[in-house]
């Protein structure tokens, strides 16, 4: 069953029950079906349930269900009937997202105090809810969490007048520290290991160095968790714990203390949400921003940007983008005009107010970047068949940047000269690096120019005249009114660093070219801190060159050993049955189009390697195993098909540091990791060499 997930603060409403019924205490709660009451009668045991899903989505209650005595699984009490629930039929949710009914079971004897609710398939019992205390009522207590009223009172006491966000305050990038650390701790008030969730993850990104990290932590048996990890600058990062998904604002050197629960309810607009979510401890900037940003987004309805302002893939996309752009710019005008009255007098730091401002800017302006991306993907360069059936390149359509950017010029400094806007998240920096306004700056930093006559495709060759390339890039920025703004300098610096990080074979000869490219970037940067960051990365690369050239050819160690960590143990357990083979690990999912295409394209190669010491291990999350198996059988995909738990998936994403699929790994016959981000290709020299070892 496919679901959409979101997060909000919502509590289960009071439930009306008969005089004999109780709301029972349970050890776990099923996300799509909540128990609302239990009633023992002389002839049956009645379990009141609330089915829940997104409005107009559906759930299905199978006809075969039973109650199992927790302490003696041989004692089972079968389902005999229902009220207001049709078995084996899709039950669509109304606008509320809830549908209530009753499951009627055989009478459970009085000596049985605790039961599990199970659904049965052909092979095994699937426990839906563990530990239903038939005679023990549930008592709800709200965890002690920080409230906004405790922090800001009436919003006036102790207030310091805020003059608004001034990007110049952040011009020296003093918020950036590559070696910074942040700390998260938390507790899950209703946690049980029986939920099958023992890990959580936080995805971070340093957009200056293009280093992404998936930080994985373990949940203790008592529901507490704690983790430290590197964080280069304050930013919104993606937090995932079971079905809980949320963007958290994290600050280097700060501690964020989370309080949440596994039990979920339905918000008609957002879907599944925890019954409670919040923060405890001190009222530092971190929790204050996390709480206020929800109020901010709700006040201006900023969570629905894509739904309200997306462009459709039609012939009129270009004019639609310009119309939506005008509306987005007008919305930003009105929000910024109102925000001073909304947050200006709150007794919180100027930094909190500045972050809230860039959050609003990022949400609104970010949608025009998304619309541009949709246009490029739809109207960009592509192949089409000519009259003779031959595939020929189609020239791309282009947007008029002057017209596109005109509505944003009133807030040029807040958008294009505002380093703090990077704290909004990785999406904006990613879009800047690839859109038409700043892509020439990226090319200049990489020393690559487009091959003439390539039909608009990104086909590049090494440039001979770097100064000329920079002149063209800067002239282009001047012509559309942006000039040599912070964003242009940021994308050039980041592109130069990315060039260094992608170089897997450092050498003195390559170092000369990197030095030449870096000198051009530095020459055109007005932000000194950007130059310091670039030089630090260049020094790191020089160190790699020394290591590489001092290593004798005969003593070179091919591959990295699997670490002796929880993450490494998961990998070792998975590959142990295939010991002695060269292994290609492909992490995929049924909802990933490129994953499916890649697997189909690899079929001929797998047939050629069938008699060689080689195995392809296709690894997917077990949540969608049935759909995966159906597709694999239909397409005749060979190889080893493994389905792993969410916990094991998280641990492997942390080990290999990936957050997007498809993702490939090559592991040698000796069990060492040869390469990550690996693309299986027959002509790859590494594949041929590893097969012969």
Summarize the structure in short.
The chain has 19 helices and 28 strands.
Secondary structure blueprint with pairings:
Elements: E1 33-40, E2 44-52, E3 58-59, E4 65-69, E5 76-83, E6 91-92, E7 98-106, E8 114-120, E9 125-133, H1 148-152, E10 181-188, E11 199-206, E12 211-218, E13 224-230, E14 235-241, E15 244-250, E16 255-260, E17 264-267, E18 271-274, E19 277-279, H2 285-300, H3 305-309, H4 317-343, H5 350-379, E20 382-385, E21 391-394, H6 401-405, H7 412-416, H8 427-434, H9 439-446, E22 448-450, E23 460-462, H10 466-479, H11 486-501, H12 508-523, H13 528-550, H14 566-575, E24 582-587, H15 593-601, H16 603-608, E25 614-621, H17 625-635, E26 640-644, H18 646-656, E27 663-667, E28 673-676, H19 685-692
Parallel strand pairs: 10-16, 24-25, 25-26
Antiparallel strand pairs: 1-2, 2-7, 3-6, 4-5, 4-8, 5-7, 8-9, 10-13, 11-12, 11-14, 14-15, 16-19, 17-18, 20-21, 22-23, 24-27, 27-28
Helix pairs in contact: 2-5, 4-5, 5-8, 9-10, 9-11, 11-12, 11-13, 12-13, 14-18
- Strand segment tally: 28
Measured between the Cα atoms of the first and last residue, the distance is: 45 Å
Mean pLDDT: 88
Helical content band: 25-40%
Please report the number of helical segments: 19
Beta-strand percentage range: 15-25%
* 3D shape: globular
The assigned structural class equals alpha+beta
Return residue spans where pLDDT drops below 50 for at least 5 consecutive residues: 1-19, 552-557
- Placed side by side, the strands forming the largest sheet appear as 1-2-7-5-4-8-9
CA radius of gyration is 28 Å
